[in-house]
Design a protein that fits this description.
The chain has 13 helices and no strands. The protein is mostly helical and about 210 residues long. The protein folds into two domains: about 1-35 and about 155-210, Endonuclease Iii, domain 2, CATH 1.10.1670; about 40-150, Hypothetical protein, domain 2 (Endonuclease III, domain 1, Orthogonal Bundle). The protein is elongated, with a radius of gyration of 19 Å.
C-alpha cells in the first residue's frame, strides 16, 4: 500500500471517528483493497480512458487492442508521436468514433507540446493543478481527471461528485430514497477529509453486495 502515500489503517480510523455511519460499511467490506492501475505515461492513461468512455469494458478493450496493434509492442508502444503519425483512417478503422478521434488527436498534440504532464511531474503537482491541466484536453472532463488522481496516482482525498455509482452507493448506504444532489454529497463528504478517496472506495463496495 506504500504506493498510496498514506497508511490505510490511519485513514480507516479517521473515517470511523469522523463519520460513525461508515463503520458498518467498512466492517462489511473488510480491509481497504483498492488497486492502483499502472501506465507508461499520463498520455497513455488518458488515451485509454478516452477509448473506454461510454463503452463496456469488453468492447473498449477490443477497440483499444486494435488501435495499439498499429504500434510496436502494442500498448507499450503507444506514444503521442506515434498516434499523431497514424492516419485518421487507421484510427477510425480500429472502431474509434469521430468525437473520440478528435479527443485523441488533441491529447496527442498537447502531450507533444508539453501541456500534458509526465508521470514524474504529475506526482509533484497538487490535485487541483492536475485537474486543470487534464480537463483542458478535448473529451477529458473532471470525472476522468478525478479517476486518474484516484486510480493512477493514489491520491487520498478525491471525492468524484459527478460519479453516478458513488451517488447511488451513498443513497444505498445511508438509506436515502433518492440520489443525493451534488452539494449534499459534497457537504457530507467534508467530514471524510483528508481521506475522501478511501470513503468513496468503501461506499462503492456497497454496490457489490446483495
Amino acid at each position: 500500500m506504500a504506493a498510496f502515500g498514506f497508511e490505510p489503517a490511519e485513514a480507516i480510523a479517521h473515517l470511523r471517528a469522523a463519520d460513525p455511519a461508515l463503520t458498518p460499511i467498512i466492517d462489511a467490506a473488510g480491509p481497504f483493497a483498492m488497486e492502483l492501475k499502472t501506465a507508461r505515461s499520463v498520455f497513455a492513461a488518458l488515451a485509454e480512458a478516452i477509448v473506454y468512455q461510454q463503452l463496456s469494458n469488453k468492447a473498449a478493450a477490443t477497440i483499444f487492442g486494435r488501435l495499439c496493434g498499429h504500434f510496436p509492442r502494442g500498448a507499450a508502444g503507444l506514444t503521442s508521436e506515434r498516434l499523431l503519425a497514424l492516419s485518421d483512417a487507421r484510427i477510425r478503422g480500429a472502431g474509434i468514433s469521430r468525437p473520440k478521434l478528435k479527443s485523441l488527436r488533441d491529447l496527442a498534440r498537447r502531450a507533444v507540446a508539453g501541456e500534458v504532464p509526465t508521470l514524474a511531474a504529475a506526482r509533484r503537482m497538487t490535485d487541483a493543478e492536475i485537474v486543470e491541466r487534464l480537463i483542458a484536453v478535448h473529451g477529458i472532463g473532471r470525472w476522468s481527471a478525478e479517476m486518474f488522481l484516484m486510480f493512477y496516482l493514489g491520491r487520498p482525498d478525491v471525492l468524484p461528485l459527478d460519479d453516478y455509482s458513488l451517488r447511488k452507493a451513498y443513497a444505498t448506504a445511508f438509506k436515502k430514497r433518492d440520489l443525493p444532489a451534488r452539494d449534499v454529497l459534497e457537504k457530507h463528504g467534508e467530514r471524510w477529509r483528508p481521506y475522501r478517496t478511501v470513503a468513496s472506495w468503501y461506499l462503492w463496495q456497497t454496490l457489490n453486495r446483495p
